[in-house]
Write a structure and sequence with these properties.
This protein is an alpha+beta fold and about 210 residues long. The chain has helices at about 20-35, 60-75, 140-145, 150-160, 210-214, and strands spanning about 5-10, 15, 80-90, 95, 100, 105-115, 120-125, 165-170, 185-190, 195-200. The longest helix has 18 residues, at about 60-75. The radius of gyration is 25 Å and the shape is globular.
Length: about 210
Amino acid sequence: MLLPRTVIPRGGISVTEDEDYKCICCILDMCEVQLNEGCNKMSNYTVDTNESFCFLFPTDLLFEGFIGGFLKEVLQDVGGKVHLQESKMSLVEKIIYKGETSGAAFTMRHDILAEYHDKVFVLDTKYKEMSRFEDNPDYKETISNEAKQGDLYQVLEYARKRDIQDVYLLYPMYRYEEKEEEFPVSVSESPSGDINVHFIRMPFIFEEDEDRTR
């Protein structure tokens, strides 16, 4: 039996410096940060005496969750439905090799799938910078330079597989920015039918007025 090496007091609790206790020490340190009124009392970093914590948030997922949750609240009041990370379809339905056929592959996963009045809307959130369109004479260059070609391929394929004409790329607005009245639409022409890609810039925060945001 291996004995713990040392005993370390943490927040009034003594724990042993052993592999089994490392996770406990981390949890105790994080609790101490919260009990010390946030990170204020831990901000002065000193080697070998304090540990500094960095909380990293996946902002793209926060943006997607915020927009998805907001649309759920809005559409449920008018009989609509919103599905987040919908994944009931695949890019290919079967793979054929040497006379054998396997099942579907490459699952499609929509950020937001909305249903309203028998229509389906596919919305893809992009936490990326997209400059303002209104009063911007170079809006075409803005789309060409700031929108990613891979993002367009993605939503165009979503539209083709679901046989819909409109798909939406959603980008965050800047804070305190006034909303825009109109947004550009890119049209992908095809013998099977044109597909419209809407570029929408949306608020990422309610500020003080949720109704105004709606």
